[in-house]
Design brief:
Length: about 675
């Protein structure tokens, strides 16, 4: 039967060791074992079913999420799951919920911005979930502009308390996940006011609801901000609104690692940079990059399997039509996304390392790498989430009409994913942060301050401003050194050009605003260089398993040459390559697609996703698409009755009217 046979035959064609590739994708044999075990545990638990999600009303959907979260917590305790196993469980439950903000932002904020004593007081309560917290930063009037927040925290020396207040409508907290209906506590960001002086934004731990009856405490107004894009999707989350009317909290509930307020009302700065108040965002942006590879690989897995099952046109001698995956246009849209999923996986792995390194340095009072960590997390968060959101939509189109059905899994994946382009920093705003970092780096060239980390290449500015790409034949594009040089030269030249244009302005801030569209492109070029170079570095590691390294090399080259093709204007206009070399790159790209084609199904099998996680009829492991699509359609509540509700009120009268008209 079509589907079963197609995918089995595809799997038999694979030219590499899929089990070893699973280890590479997971990161280690241990991680693969944990992820495999937990994904099956979730898939086999009826409480974690997902199939009715898009049909539920908001209230039922939300209650169902609460049920799943409580059940997840129960299983974590019963099975004594480690932190790693619990995080995997959350991942495979696959439903945004208040727990994400509690574990993903509230706890990390206390760890990163609280003093030792504050951590000792609050963390045990949070770890045992005796309190549930969220991250209340964004307001109705300001999200990107954190320094523009209006909530106030005024020190009252009489009572040794802070008075938390929402002075305007626009100061209402707006968006925090988990806030609307669940959280008992929040880290609230507000302006620290002492003796009428404004000391800027800081974090404060505020209790919101009673631990007895869950009612908001006096002076606090809370609710949910309403339905969001799509059915199901992010509507499992209670993004909330919060207002304070002179709510008092003890002084020791200001997070005081960065600066302290004494009993006398004196502000004392510690030796850590004030930017650490933004530390949780660096942590979460790093997580979001890893999540991008998961979301993109999931969509790509669905589209690739379905493309091998789906046949249209091109009747062959054996009477069978062509698999759509064999069309070159399908390959040129699908395989770069497959390559991007792997690329984002590896850059995510590297970013996790970078974050851990920065954290260790911070503990030892070395703050030197914080600006680079901020630029990398901001830039890569922006690059990977934008590409993933676009990629999921492309996968939907790659699945033709059936991709638009909720049972394909793609509409809900798209709807749940796209806010990643906005939360944790709007993607353009974040790229502008990278641009500022690049301009600063360029301006310091030649000053004796050597560029570090991902900007080391800028130290070779003279060479990179003049070099000529050495490619003479298509295969030359397979050399990592050739690709790296082209990407470095493009990024260098775009940053230098931006800096030179900026220098023409008397007022740098005005110039920055005027040139911001170009600056964003320079930032994108730098971030793409990071992704390419981290993929190449990955390939320099010991990679066991028959054929595994060869497949990864092909994917790395596809990613790089696809980006080169997509941004050809940059590469040509900066003179990094010639039009002839561009057309050789394109020829090489086509040949790489042919190389990947027989391995495509095995390359998505290596993600090791269960059918439960994929929740897609089109992406089923067994390829049994058509019977299951047919079966799925009959489950729709609209098919509960043959004649629909409303027939007598609305359809019959029309038909009767038409009959009467016809008789006239
Ligand atoms: C049942 C299961 C139980 C187990 C469960 C286990 C696990 C579950 C969970 C895990 C989940 C983990 C993670 C979650 C994953 C996904 C996320 C899910 C949901 C997302 C929820 C979303 C939350 C949010 O959106 S929170 C709000 C985020 N808001 C923003 O991002 C605002 C964006 N704006 C800014 O960041 C800044 O204001 C700015 C635009 C970067 C800067 O503005 P500007 O005014 O220009 O500058 P200043 O503020 O004056 O700063 C200038 C100065 O500071 C430097 N800078 C800026 N930012 C940072 C930074 N973050 N770090 C370091 N330095 C920074 C900047 O470079 C400049 O420096 P300079 O002066 O030296 O040049
Ligand atoms: C699903 C979801 C969950 C969220 N969860 C939380 C949470 O748990 N806690 C929390 O505190 N917040 C949360 N947020 C809020 C989120 O962090 C902000 O929405 C985000 O930071 C963007 O800010 P904004 O809404 O103010 O966008 P704006 O800054 O108003 O953006 C609007 C437009 O203006 C552009 N723009 C803004 N500034 C500039 C500039 N300087 N230069 C050029 N263009 C600019 C942007 O590119 C964008 O196109 C969440 C948001 C969403 C969607």
């Amino acid at each position: 039967m079509a589907g079963f046979d197609d995918l089995a035959s595809e799997r038999s064609k694979a030219q590499f060791d899929v089990e070893e590739m699973k280890v590479i994708w997971a990161g280690s044999r241990h991680t693969l074992e944990v992820s495999d075990r937990i994904s099956r545990l979730v898939a086999n638990d009826p409480v974690f079913r997902k199939d009715t999600r898009t049909m539920l009303s908001r209230k039922d959907l939300f209650k169902n999420t609460l049920r799943k979260a409580a059940h997840a917590w129960k299983r974590i305790i019963e099975l004594r799951l480690s932190e790693e196993e619990a995080a995997e469980l959350r991942f495979y439950v696959d439903e945004p919920a208040f727990m994400d903000l509690h574990w993903g932002m509230f706890i990390p904020t206390i760890k990163g911005q609280g003093t030792e004593e504050q951590q000792q007081k609050w963390l045990p309560l949070a770890y045992k979930m005796k309190i549930i917290g969220c991250y209340a930063q964004t307001e109705l009037g300001h999200g990107s502009n954190v320094q523009g927040l209006e909530t106030t925290a005024t020190f009252d020396p009489q009572t040794d308390e802070f008075i938390i207040h929402s002075p305007t409508l626009t100061s209402s907290k707006w968006w925090p996940g988990g806030l609307g209906k669940v959280s008992t506590h929040a880290v609230v960001y507000g302006r620290l006011i002492i003796d009428s002086k404004d000391y800027g934004v800081n974090g404060f731990i505020v209790q919101l609801r009673s631990l007895d009856d869950h009612l908001p405490l006096p002076g606090i107004t809370i609710g949910d901000i309403g339905m969001k894009f799509g059915s199901g999707a992010y509507n499992t989350m209670d993004n909330g609104v919060l207002r304070f009317d002179h709510v008092r909290i003890p002084r020791d509930q200001m997070l005081m690692r960065v600066s302290q307020v004494t009993r006398e009302g004196k502000l004392v700065q510690s030796n850590v940079p004030w930017q650490l108040v933004y530390g949780t965002m660096v942590y979460v942006r790093q997580k979001i990059v890893s999540d991008a590879s998961c979301a993109l690989s999931r969509a790509v897995c669905i589209a690739t399997r379905y493309s091998a099952v789906r046949r249209q046109f091109g009747l062959q001698s054996n009477g069978i039509e062509t698999q759509v995956i064999d069309y070159k246009t399908q390959q040129s849209r699908l395989f770069p996304l497959l390559a991007s999923a792997y690329a984002f996986r590896f850059v995510g792995e590297w970013l996790k390392w970078l974050y851990m390194d920065v954290n260790q340095r911070l503990q030892a009072s070395d703050f030197s790498t914080l600006p680079e960590a901020h630029a990398c997390t901001a830039g890569l968060k922006s690059l990977t989430t934008s590409a993933t959101a676009d990629g999921i939509e492309e996968c939907r189109k790659l699945c033709g009409g059936h991709g638009y059905l909720c049972s394909s899994g793609l509409p809900e994946l798209f709807a749940v994913y796209i806010p990643a382009c906005t939360y944790e920093g709007d993607n353009i705003v974040l790229l502008l942060q990278v641009a500022r970092f690049l301009i600063k780096t360029v301006s310091q060239l030649g000053s004796g301050k050597e560029p570090v980390g991902t900007t080391v290449y800028m130290g070779r500015v003279e060479q990179l401003m003049q070099c000529h790409c050495a490619v003479q034949k298509a295969e030359d594009w397979l050399k990592p050194s050739v690709i790296l040089e082209a990407f470095e030269a493009r990024s260098m030249r775009m940053s230098v050009a931006s800096a030179q244009n900026l220098a023409k302005f008397d007022n740098q801030e005005e110039g920055f605003l005027e040139l911001s569209a170009d600056l964003v492109q320079a930032a994108v070029a730098h971030c793409q260089l990071i992704v390419v170079s981290k993929f190449i570095e990955k390939l320099q590691q010991d990679i066991p398993g028959k054929g595994v390294k060869g497949q990864l090399e092909a994917l790395c080259n596809i990613y790089a040459l696809f980006i080169l093709h997509k941004h050809l204007g940059d590469f040509l206009s900066t003179g990094c390559i010639t039009p002839k070399q561009a057309s050789l790159a394109n020829a090489q790209l086509r040949s790489l697609y042919s190389q990947v084609r027989p391995n495509a199904i095995a390359l998505v099998d290596a993600f090791n996703y269960t059918d439960h996680y994929l929740s897609s009829v089109l992406g089923r492991y067994d390829g049994n698409v058509y019977p299951k699509l047919y079966e799925e359609a009959w489950k729709d509540p609209l098919n509960d009755s043959v004649v629909p509700d409303g027939y007598q009120e609305y359809i019959q009268p029309i038909l009767k009217q038409q009959l009467r008209n016809a008789r006239l």
